[in-house]
Amino acid sequence: MLDISHSFDRLPTQPGVGYKAQHFADIMADAGPVGWLEIHAENYMGDGGRPIAQLKHLAQRFPISVHGVGLSIGGETPLDQDHLARLKHLIDWLNPASFSEHLAWSTHDTHFLNDLLPVPYNDATLNRVVDHINQVQDALGRRMLLENPSTYLAFEETTMSEVDYLAQIVQRTGCGLLLDVNNVFVSATNQQTDPISYINDFPVEYVGEIHLGGHDEDHDDHGAPLLIDSHGREVVDPVWALYDHTLTRTGPVPTLIEWDTDVPDWQPLASEAARAERALSKVLA
Amino acid sequence: MGQSDFTHALLDPAAAIPNGVIDPQGLPTPKRFAVYRNNVAVSLTDALEAAFPVIVKLVGPEFFRAMVGVYLRQYPPTSPLMMFYGDQMPDFLKTFEPAQKIPYLPDIARLEQAMRQSYHAADAQPIQPSVLQDMPPDQLMGSYLHLAPAVRVISSPWPIYAIWQFNMAADAPKPEMRAEDVLITRPEYDPYLTLLPPGATLFLEASKDMSFGEAYEQATKIVPDFDLTSTLGALIAGGAITAISEIPK
For testing the chain A interface, which of B5, B12, B39 should be mutated: the one with the most A CBs within 10 Å? Predict the structure, then answer.
């Protein structure tokens, strides 16, 4: 039996990567600049087998961030209590350094749609999101981080900015924030707003983790740029620049490279992590 | 905009874009909504493609992707655990008209889904082979077989073991028409398939609530030359026996 009782209680101020099973041997041999790993909670909700065995090995060596993609915190329907119980089971035995989820919905009634769907920002949806986050934090017995989404459309029903919305959630739930800088860039482009202002207005004192990832470029019906948050390639230079700017406000923060589709070999991923390490070292100095 | 309307429009490509969904200028925006529609369809299609590699080979990737476009709208996931999405695939393949030319598809889908369940099943410590060998025959016949959570048995009137091997293993012979029963074990982390001899499925089914001796009798009643030795050999090699106990499971 592996001993993971010495669990890491926080993510280090280093780069991390989204863990993919094909990188297991490389990571165990030499993780390079990577100081922690993030897993998608739902992939580790089986009863046993290789995924759980690998996770137990990794958790001995690395702080683990559990990142949920299926709670549907922005959903109109009540939280799926079975799913929350599965999540609690994982958090209880793994005792990860961090748990985070999304400002989005993915389940309606009994349908799970396997995508992070957008929420209109107004008082009614805010109350619902706050209620759901309180339920999650109560069930898990820990503070969670909430991630800003990448969005492709707007809602007539929206009455407040995303930053105001997130700030109110933090005030009312005590949760922290996961600032996805690529999502800021994608959403600002798609919503035709200024990403620098978004970062400048963001309640940075609550940021416990940063995400960086790659996106694809397209255009909408009227020829306006439409960026797609694909996590399928390198982080682009303008997002690295926005990250540098973000770090001047947040100070050094554990930073994750996400690469979930067309997953490369270990080296290209480690190179992205090394680039994040250089940016972090500038603000650590 | 309610999430009911949004969900309906996501799953039905012919449905209108939900009210109140706009671009930053306040204009209607079909292409922006289509990003979500595409994400849902592609992510579910990819999940099913990874889940049923033999079905993909049997019908071809293009046919498969078109077919699961129908499946995912008929049976959207009901749980965030994508590792198990596809439970209704065998039933769907029984009735999906364009797939009727290949009558063994539903049974191959059952086999593939069972392999996924086996992959994620709870770990269990198998007994040492010597436990079985050293047990006096009388004691063995009165004992109960306890199998690991990762064990599955799939019976079919089609040669599902041979079809699976032919599509997934190098140099496997061309399948010949016959009924085949397959045992799935998980010796370590990867599910392993063994072709079961006639009667083994009867024996294993009976073993769930009968003693070893009673189950053997059940099997030999219908298959007089039931090969117990090779059946036990497959179970032991696959680490499938967790206990031989005087107590039923």
Answer: B39
pLDDT at site A7: 60
Q: What is the pLDDT of residue A6?
A: 52
In whole angstroms, what is the distance from residue B15 CA to residue A131 CA?
32
Cβ distance B81 to A107 less than 8 Å, yes or no, reads: no
CB-nearest partner of B23 from A83, A105, A220: A220
Tell me the chain A residues in contact with residue B150 when contact means C-beta distances shorter than 8 Å: 48-49
Q: Which residues of B touch A124 (CB under 8 A)?
A: none
Domains of chain A: 15-284 (3.20.20.150)
Closest CA–CA distance from residue B36 to any residue of chain A (Å): 7
- List, for chain A, all residue ranges whose pLDDT scores fall below the cut of 50: 1
Closest CA to A106 of B82, B182, B109: B82
CA–CA distance from B62 to each of A154, B55, B58 (Å)?
34, 12, 11
**What digits encode the pLDDT tens for the residues B13-30?**
899 999 999 999 999 999
Contact A48 B10 (CB under 8 A): no
Predicted complex ipTM: 0.94
Q: Give the phi and the psi of residue B21 in degrees, each rounded to 5.
A: -95, 120
CA distance A38 to A40: 7
Residue B240 has pLDDT above 90, yes or no: yes
**A244/B22 Cα distance (integer angstroms):** 32
The structural domains of chain B, ordered by start, are: 1-102 (no CATH), 114-249 (3.90.930)
